[in-house]
Write a structure and sequence with these properties.
By secondary structure, the chain is an all-alpha fold. It has one domain. The chain contains eleven helices and no strands. Helix 4 runs antiparallel to helix 5.
Length: about 230
């Protein structure tokens, strides 16, 4: 039990590293939460600071989830608990606990007044570490929805829903053996609901038709670069 508590705390702390806030303050001298959507996530960095900082922040946020499931979770097995028996036998469940702790840390970071991002990138890194095939399918869904709609939020929500659906199709229709399927399917549904919940403001804007499209944001960024002082374009 003590080892599991250590994993939860370490994963939460790693997930709590406020990548977007650190980047925006250190390199641009601003608090990203006071600009754009006000969210401390990679999408808002992309929106406010450009695609390069946005991609960098997203990669680091993904890395937090991956580290939790690929490295921190293994502390549960090395060394084996006294007596040679494990409190939890399924390693997948340990990974889920570690990854979920990292996601919660990202959403409610202790280093920034419990005001973090939406958790999509950290969840993506976690899911890649646990179920790479389902993750790859979800990424494909995200890209297709993004290209068709130009809404990053809609792509993220669609990807979150695609993960458990892919698990169900592979297990029930294609009869693919998936390790710890029963644990994974319940978890994937729970994490999808959490990510949809964190995007509730985006869903509201999508329904109202006021959500920002990626194309409009890119054009706006381009105009700012061409007219840094607000001079009219010629």
């Amino acid at each position: 039990m003590e080892r599991l508590a250590i994993i939860i705390v370490l994963s939460y702390l790693v997930g709590s590293i406020p990548t977007s806030i650190i980047y925006s303050k250190f390199f641009r001298g601003i608090d990203i939460r006071r600009h754009g959507s006000g969210n401390a996530g990679g999408t808002n960095v992309f929106r406010v600071l450009g695609w390069k900082p946005g991609v960098a922040v997203i990669i680091f946020d993904m890395l937090k989830g991956f580290i939790a499931v690929a490295i921190i979770a293994r502390l549960y097995y090395d060394p084996v608990l006294p007596g040679g028996e494990l409190l939890i036998q399924e390693f997948t469940l340990i990974q889920i606990i570690a990854g979920a702790s990292a996601i919660l840390g990202h959403i409610w970071t202790v280093f920034a007044g419990f005001n973090g991002g939406k958790g999509i990138a950290t969840a993506a890194g976690m899911l890649f570490g646990i179920a790479p095939i389902e993750f790859t399918v979800s990424v494909g869904v995200f890209l297709i929805v993004l290209l068709l709609s130009r809404f990053v939020s809609l792509g993220s929500i669609s990807a979150a829903v695609a993960f458990p659906l892919t698990l169900m199709f592979r297990w029930n229709i294609f009869n693919v053996e998936i390790q710890d399927y029963s644990t994974l399917i319940y978890f994937s549904i729970a994490i999808s609901l959490l990510l949809i919940y964190t995007h509730r403001s985006n869903i509201k804007r999508l329904l109202q038709g006021t959500e920002n499209k990626l194309s409009a944001l890119s054009l706006k960024s381009k105009k700012r670069k061409e007219n840094p002082e607000g001079n009219p374009a010629r």
